[in-house]
Amino acid sequence: KQLHHYQLSLASYNIRNAKGLDEKISYERIAEVIKKLDTDAIAIQEIDSCTNRSEGLFVLEELAKRTGMYPIYAPAIEFDGGKYGIGILCKQKPLSIKHYPLPGEEEKRTLIVAEFDHYIFSCTHLSLTEKDRLSSAKIIYDILKSYKKPVFIGGDWNDTPDSKFIAEMNQNFYLLTDTASHTFPASLPETTIDYIAALKQDKTRINVSKAEVYDAEIESDHRPVKVIIDYDY
């Protein structure tokens, strides 16, 4: 197979269901941040679908309409008359989408895997319980290693760069984001819990040309992370 060169931009953003640090719910504000990030795909966490608190609205659809991107949703739990989960917004319609359950003692978790022409992008929001996160690292690797295309994963992993869990992830993934730049809390970030990583694959060479934490200080309780990468596939 002849190798082709690609450039790809990816982001991850825990939007807290569009509720800002000023307690205002604004899909407009979150959509503005997503548009400014201007990535091929963005992993999003904490999204309501048709709940009472969101007045029956499908929040990812609201963001998709405002950004002109394609929505992929995976509910993790039943919540407040509707569902609550994670999603991906992407510029290109995916070729296939799969959902997988992940452990969550305090709240069930999920993984979305979306396949595109020349890459795979997955999204997750991991448990607050360390045992669950460590089991998830193995489950995620077992699922993603079966893909031949370059594989990327973004999400709120609820753990810090010096943790046992990140050490576990580092066995099979390269962290692409700048872990020295903090993501939480948004107003004055003190810690990093949001990441984008690439699966270690024999044939894929990945070069990170840019990694940043975007300065969104009030729109959610997290700041989004973004990477621009080049690779041959």
Automatic annotation (TrEMBL):
Alphabetic keyword roster: Endonuclease, Hydrolase, Nuclease
Protein's GO biological process: GPI anchor biosynthetic process
Entry GO CC: membrane
Domain Endonuclease/exonuclease/phosphatase: 11-196
Residues making up the signal peptide according to the UniProt record: none
InterPro entries linked to this entry: Endo/exonu/phosph_ase_sf, Endo/exonuclease/phosphatase, GPI-anchor_lipid_remodeler
Full protein name: Endonuclease/exonuclease/phosphatase family protein
Biological source species: Candidatus Parabacteroides intestinipullorum
